[in-house]
Amino acid sequence: MNEMATKIADGLERAFAMQGFAAPSVEDLRDAAGVSLRTLYKYAPSRDLMIRMALEHRHQRYLGHVFGDQNRSSGQSLDETLDRVANWMQTEASHGCLFHAAVASAPDDQKLRQLLEAHKSEVSQRAAVSAGCDISPNDVMVIIEGLTQAWSLSQDAALTSAKRLARLAEAQSA
Amino acid sequence: MNEMATKIADGLERAFAMQGFAAPSVEDLRDAAGVSLRTLYKYAPSRDLMIRMALEHRHQRYLGHVFGDQNRSSGQSLDETLDRVANWMQTEASHGCLFHAAVASAPDDQKLRQLLEAHKSEVSQRAAVSAGCDISPNDVMVIIEGLTQAWSLSQDAALTSAKRLARLAEAQSA
DNA sequence: GACGAAGTAGAGTGTTCGCTCTACCTGCGC
DNA sequence: GCGCAGGTAGAGCGAACACTCTACTTCGTC
């Protein structure tokens, strides 16, 4: 991915995160990307592809934020992972999970559904593995999803509950 | 709410649940409601109000499905509540929570955000109370939200995890 | 059987949308 | 200094959109 593509993906992600997937027109997206309409369409030949480009970019950024940019893929406790997820919600995702929002905006789009599934399963898989205990990725997914969705409703209380549930689940599977 | 209003709300809810909030045009909504455009606008004078009408209708239907239509507001175990939530997801909400989808489609709409918040807090409140133990509504919210979101990704595995987490949380707060 | 309330069908309106196209500018290798 | 790859600005197009309007029908009441 070259420099121009990164700049465009960055702007698109920001625009969709702020305004949702329905509201921004292609001209809004052009402004957010900071390029001409012609160039935008060169890198993302349709509005649908602009959405996919933004989500792929966000997936990488999310993994970097939650698990660290390095290949340090293990040794992070579930507790710390949940802290980082909450921090992501606070700093980047005040409107909720962008992948769920994308799927909600176009429920029949199979490509989007695939992206959502790949994103969520990679996240829960990595969180479970790096936690180092025998907790099931399914439990991890329910906890992370619960935290992510409940965050916008009750913030710190949601984080506290998610951490308590995680500790209980870990204690049982250890 | 008279008969015509109920019929319209029902059709609107179905249309939004199937197609999301961005895709259906007002003409699609008219067809789903089974009335003329004129009548539709009489009961819901703008597209935004059609969305609100559908969500209020869905809130009532959800409460009825999960907690029973009667005033039997207590005595239902958390385990049974989670079963009913999973059943709702399977039969009615294959595309995920409609309230989150609505907010995602218009992140700046404060009225929609209020509806989401009222819906979620009433659900977790009632689930916690009717469970009869001292479990915190925040824990319940994280578990129900986690189940709701993870359901579309892993179905029964999500239900199993949610139930396990609920049992652990109940055991600790008993 | 006249009347008003409440429904229907469907054409019309101005706007906005996604997308394309033409015309121009700029930096770089040979 | 010429050509070209790759960028910019912005007008233009046909379709779709939310919403309104006119004209007609149905039905219950007195």
How would you describe the overall organization of this protein?
- The structure is a homodimer of 174-residue chains.
- Chain A is mostly helical and 174 residues long.
- The first copy, chain A, is built from nine helices and no strands.
- The first copy, chain A, has helices spanning 3-19, 26-33, 37-43, 47-67, 78-92, 98-105, 110-131, 137-154, 156-173.
- In chain A, helix 4 crosses helix 5 (78-92), helix 4 (47-67) packs parallel to helix 7 and helix 5 (78-92) runs antiparallel to helix 9.
- At the A-B interface, helix 6, helix 7, helix 8 and helix 9 of A face helix 6, helix 7, helix 8 and helix 9 of B.
- The first copy, chain A, binds a DNA duplex (30 and 30 nucleotides) through helix 3.
N- to C-terminal separation of chain A?
A: 42 Å
Helix content of chain A: over 70%
Indicate the low-confidence ranges of chain A by residue numbers. none
Biggest β-sheet strands, sense, barrel of chain A: none
Order of helices and strands of chain A: HHHHHHHHH
| Average pLDDT over all residues of chain A | 94
Radius of gyration of chain A: 17 Å
**Class inferred from helices and paired strands of chain A:** mainly alpha
What oligomeric state do these chains adopt? homodimer
Q: What's the overall geometry of chain A?
A: elongated
